[in-house]
Every structure is written in C-alpha cells, then in structure tokens.
Amino acid sequence: MRANFRMQRLFVEAPLSAGAAIDTTTDHFNYLANVLRMAEGAELLVFNGRDGEWKVRLTFPTRKRIVMIAEEQTRPQPAPSDLHYLFAPLKVGRLDYLVQKAVEMGAGVLRPVLTQHVQGKITNLEKLKANVIEAAEQCGILGIPTVAEPVKLSDLLDAWPNDRRIIYCDEGDAGQNPLPLLSKISEQKLALLVGPEGGFSEEERARLRSLDFVTAIPLGPRILRADTAAVAAMAVIQASIGDWN
Asked: Model's pTM, two decimal places?
C-alpha cells in the first residue's frame, strides 16, 4: 500500500496500537503547534519503524502539551529491506543528500566505509540517524534503515559473509552497460558499495576484483560525481534485480 502524501507524517519512538496516547517531545510540540499551527482535533500519520503507520488525532490537555491519540492503522509494517548500502563519506551537504537518497531508494542498512581516498568523515552518527528518519518521514517509508558504525574497507572485506554479494561501482571499468553483469547475479542478499570522490585506489580495486563475492559494474560513458553515482547505482540495481523488478 502506498503512502498518503496529503497528510503530515511523523516518526515517534513510542509503541503504537489502537487507542494509544503518545505524548509529543518538545521538538514535536514546537513543530506541530508553532510551525504547522495544528489545532485540537487535527489528524496526522505517525510511525515508529515497528508497528506500521497509524492515523492519530491531536489533543491539547494543556497549552504546553500535545497528546496524539492513535485511531486506526493505515498501513501494516512491511518486512525490512535487506539491501546494504556501503558508502565512502562525502563532504557535509553532499553526504546528507547521499543518505537521504539511499533511504528513498530502499536501503535497509547504511554503513560508512573508510577508503584510502576518502575525503569526508563521520563525526556525528546521531546526526546521520536523524537524517535517515527525516528522509523516511518525507518519502513514506515505514522501516527505518539501520545506521552502522564506520569501518575501514579492508576490515569490512576481511569479515564479509560469503552469502551476501557486494556490487561496487568501478569508475575504471572499460564497459558502459551494467545490466548484463547484474543479470548474472543470483544471490538474494546484496550490498552496494560506492567509493569516495577520488575513487578507489588501484590497491583497493585489485582487492575487490579478486574476491568471489564481489561484482564490479560500470555506470555508463560519463564520469559521475560520487553522490550521483550512488543514486544511479541504486536505481539500476532496484530496477534489474531489486524490489522494483
């Protein structure tokens, strides 16, 4: 069932069930009362990543307090996405865009990967998680992707399970069309690896290409920025062997 984009959506931590009363946080109170200027009896949609999506009605027990009363479930909780999104951190701004688009495109796990040419860095994992939640609110997703701790590429590959295939975008690949390579992939468990703005080092490319559980793909004849390449790769994977297929 598709999301109702005509109603405001809000992520909450509290359990959701019929008749549940959810106190708003200070930030949510300010957003609903002062930014959206919602009044007593107004309706919106809430979700917590566990109990599906619910329509709630606002009540104002006091001038400084809003309680949301859950009335009916509008969408059940779907199975979580199993697509892992592995990315080299970009500079601030472009990193926010990359994370938002990964959520919109159906990533289930987001993991920053530190490569030899990485230029960005993760200084605040909580900010990254907040960005994920905001993206989920805006695009109608009910499952909140897991945000994993940053890891060095070499350590990631050393501990990688053989039953999950890594698809990585290789800017040095001589080909242009990724579809023939993707069509040969039979594994159900997948991960997408996108490198940094400076690309993978030759040492990293050689290591990746030597591993049986890794598939290198090109992304066409043009040079793409790292954040653009991430969106393009997610789209082609979802359309050919992912949940768009």
From this structure: 0.88
